[in-house]
Amino acid sequence: MSEVVLSLQNLHKRFGALQATNDVSLDLKQGEIHALIGPNGAGKSTLIGQIAGSLRPDEGRVYLTDTEMTGMSIAQRARLGLGRSFQVSSLAEPLSVMRNVMMGVQALQSHSFRFWKPVARDRNLLDPAYEALERMQLSHRAWTPVFELSHGERRQVEVACALALKPRALLLDEPMAGLGPEGSAKLTELLEALKLEVPILLIEHDMEAVFRLADRISVLVSGSVIAHGDSQAIKQNPRVREAYLGDSDA
Ligand SMILES: Nc1ncnc2c1ncn2[C@@H]1O[C@H](COP(=O)(O)OP(=O)(O)OP(=O)(O)O)[C@@H](O)[C@H]1O
């Protein structure tokens, strides 16, 4: 049995009368990509918030390896080893790729999330940033300003920002959004290699990418996990087809 790195246990979150996540449990094991899919409004962002620390669950617990993260701040979770990318780009456009990646490392090392502080040319920042860019095959763009990058390259930088913090688990929120076939194929190839070092919880609407990448898939509908299994099992599950795949014309 592979080691469980991230574990969500019985997460409940209610907004007024709406049960946005209802008793959600799932785990992420070493070496895998676990995709979380579901129609709009299923509760995916609410779940991400509870994992990342921007939302407090009403009930339930979140663990990274053996450490409970439930009451921790976003910064504490990052320091513990939870890496994440965002649905909306968080990159500073005028700055170089390298500076963007270094800023995250600096924030983590200095225990401060003031991103605009000037970054020194410090090996403690440069080395992990460069290594992360190499893993995303972007070291040749290190000193290019972000505004000159293609959309696909920006996505690679966003993943590199998370990687530079040496995470134990990665939470990727719609990394394929807006990418054409070329960008999506490139990112798929990179994530396939990356998962062997850092397991990935992938929230993604691009079903082609999900079926290509995911070792396991959990399907969230109206706040509850209605199905869970490997890609083939999920593709063929009649409940999933009716509740989700039919709904998105996939
Ligand atoms: N802060 C909030 N206050 C009240 N209701 C909320 C809040 N955040 C989310 N909701 C509701 O909770 C439900 C789940 O929303 P959520 O954003 O988690 O879904 P989602 O699966 O991420 O959707 P999408 O794929 O469109 O991003 C929705 O009905 C949404 O309107």
Automatic annotation (TrEMBL):
Any idea which UniProt keywords this protein has?
ATP-binding, Nucleotide-binding, Transport
Name of the protein in question: ABC transporter ATP-binding protein
**Molecular function terms from GO:** ATP binding
Q: Name one Pfam family in it.
A: ABC_tran
Which residue intervals define the domain ABC transporter in the entry? Answer: 6-247
Sorted alphabetically, which PROSITE patterns does this protein's record hold? ABC_TRANSPORTER_2
Q: Which InterPro entries match?
A: AAA+_ATPase, ABC_AA/LPS_Transport, ABC_transporter-like_ATP-bd, BCA_ABC_TP_C, P-loop_NTPase
PANTHER family found in the cross-reference section: ABC TRANSPORTER ATP-BINDING PROTEIN, CONSERVED COMPONENT OF ABC TRANSPORTER FOR NATURAL AMINO ACIDS-RELATED
Please indicate if the UniProt record lists Cell membrane as a keyword.
Answer: no
The taxonomic lineage of its organism, from the top, reads: Bacteria, Pseudomonadati, Pseudomonadota, Gammaproteobacteria, Oceanospirillales
